[in-house]
Amino acid sequence: MAVLRIPTPLRNYTNGQAEVPVKGGNIAEAMNSLVEQYPALKPHLYSGEGTLRPFVNLFVGQDNVRDLQGLETPVSEETQVRLIPSIAGGSR
Amino acid sequence: MLPNLTRDEILRYSRHLLIPEVGLDGQRKLKGSSALIIGTGGLGSPVALYLAAAGIGRIGLVDYDVVDSSNLQRQVIHGSSTVGKLKVESAKARMLDLNPDIQVDVYNEPFTSENAMRIAQDYDVLIDGTDNFPTRYLTNDVSVFLGKPNIYASIYRFDGQVSVFYAKEGPCYRCLFPEPPPPGLVPSCAEGGVLGVLPGTIGTLQATEALKVLLGIGDPLIGKLLLYNALDMTFDFVKLKKNPKCRVCGPNADVKKLIDYEEFCGVPGHDHEEGSAGADWDISAKELAQRVQKNHLKLLDVREPHELEISAIQGAVNIPLGQLASRLSELDSAEEMVVFCKAGTRSARALELLVSAGFKKVKNLHGGINSWAKEVDPSLPLY
Which ranges of A1-40 does DSSP label H, i.e. alpha helix? Predict the structure, then answer.
């Protein structure tokens, strides 16, 4: 199974798991598999219409899936998908 | 014409002059250059110290906060002797002690759509050391509109991100993050915490990138995002490309001037009144203390379990915010309930979640358990 790397700020919603094995042959299916396992993540990652929110950046290797085939980007057993969120911290 | 170095400066910067990539001309370049540091906190501290030491001729500091003792675990430019003083003045004094040959301009005001272009226009680079999304989007848009590089970093607990957003040569912050996350999803350092040394690591990387950009040497992080994790001690890079749909730097950009960033992000950027769910939903610590004595009220603590060791209110039920959605069945929507956390921000999110699930008799403890500690039970520590 492909592995989805969860960033620290979202691990509250995955019982602290840093890596979640996901099913599916492409990014859309992999993300579905993630939110099926951790439903509390869904409202944060998906809009009401069921599309991924624009702040969710998914990378396969070094590449943003936006620059590949988007949600259709294929994933294999060995693929590591990285979810990179915006974080705000820095000052106070 | 680049400014000349004095005899004293030649001695001071001798270790730079020995590096062929910097040399005398490079040091004169730094003396003739300027940098604006937005935020004089965790990231701003090392950035300001190292840029001052490196001899950047003019450094601007924007911050409106005062030094608090809870800052000193990571904001190393300040000290116990400057607690209660303006951060910009505290930082300026330390920088001029380190290097009296530079000029430090201070802006003791929030960085806003009204003043940002005026403040930023006279600097060569902008350095984003802010702590909130509205000011990050503002800093990005200012850098795009003024055509200046934005040396970006942000941190959370053990994680850091660094990049150089420079729309003339690569993507901007909005190319990667067209919209902010929904309010409350990504906690701030004030809520989630941060390892004190993390902004030191990340801020010195920012200072490095600023020096490279100003000197025109090396390979700056344009089109690349550095992801650092202190626990795993990993440095990973991902590639960033210009987003053709970017609303500020794309070919069909429709954002042509600064906007209302607080509205855009759905959160306040410059608000010390954090910890409120809105007047209708808030209850003060004093009022709560009276109500608790009179009648039964359920107290719901949505902090993480390890925070309960720092302070707690007796009788409260603990369900961390991240688990609340899946544990609603443990709560009775008919019961009167007051939700609290450390300072009232997470509990305000919890309250939204409860109300949307049909809970009607819920209130948010304004200012969280820290307010309770200040106003009702002084035996509890503030954190």
Answer: 27-37
Chain B partners within 8 Å of A54 (Cβ): 177-179
Give the closest-approach CA distance of A8 to chain B in angstroms.
7
Do residues B181 and A53 make contact, with C-beta atoms less than 8 angstroms apart? Answer: yes
**Cβ(B101)–Cβ(B9) below 8 Å:** yes
Q: Are A91 and B161 within 8 A, CB to CB?
A: no
- One-letter identity of residue B152: Y
**pLDDT classification of B274: cutoffs 50, 70, 90:** low
Yes or no, beta carbons of B63 and A13 under 8 Å apart: no
Closest to B124 (Cα-Cα) out of B148, B151, B107: B148
Task: Give the C-alpha separation, B322 to B224, whole Å.
Answer: 31
Distance CA B135, CA B263 (A): 12
pLDDT at B275 over 80: no
A36 touching B (Cβ < 8 Å): no
Decide if B133 and A88 are in contact by the 8 Å CB cutoff: yes
Q: Is B234 helix (H, G, I), strand (E, B) or coil?
A: strand
> Which residues on B lie below 8 Å from A89 (Cβ)?
42, 131, 154-156, 188-189, 192, 194
Q: Where are the alpha helices (DSSP H) in B126-260?
A: 133-146, 173-176, 189-192, 198-215
- Would you please indicate which residues of B are annotated as catalytic (active-site) residues? 189, 341
Question: What is the per-residue pLDDT across B104-137, written as a single tens digit (0 to 9) for each?
Answer: 999 999 999 999 999 999 999 999 999 899 999 9
ipTM of the complex: 0.91
* CB within 8 Å: A43 and B325: yes
Shortest CA distance to B346 belongs to which of B380, B310, B383, B320? B320
Hey, are the CB atoms on B65 and A44 less than 8 Å from each other? Answer: no
pTM tops 0.80: yes
All residues of chain A having their beta carbon less than 8 Å from the beta carbon of residue B182 are 44, 53
Q: pLDDT tier at B272 (50, 70, 90 boundaries)?
A: very low
Rounded mean pLDDT of B279-297? 89
B193-206 average pLDDT score:
96
Give pLDDT tens digits for B29-79: 999 999 999 999 999 999 999 999 999 999 999 999 999 999 999 999 999
Please give the backbone phi and psi of residue B236, each rounded to the nearest 5 degrees, phi first. Answer: -115, 150
d(CA B227, CA A79): 19
Tokens representing residue B246 in the block: 């970017």
What is the distance in angstroms between the Cα of A9 and the nearest Cα belonging to chain B? 6
Query: In this structure, are strands B224-229 and B159-165 parallel, antiparallel, or unpaired?
Result: antiparallel
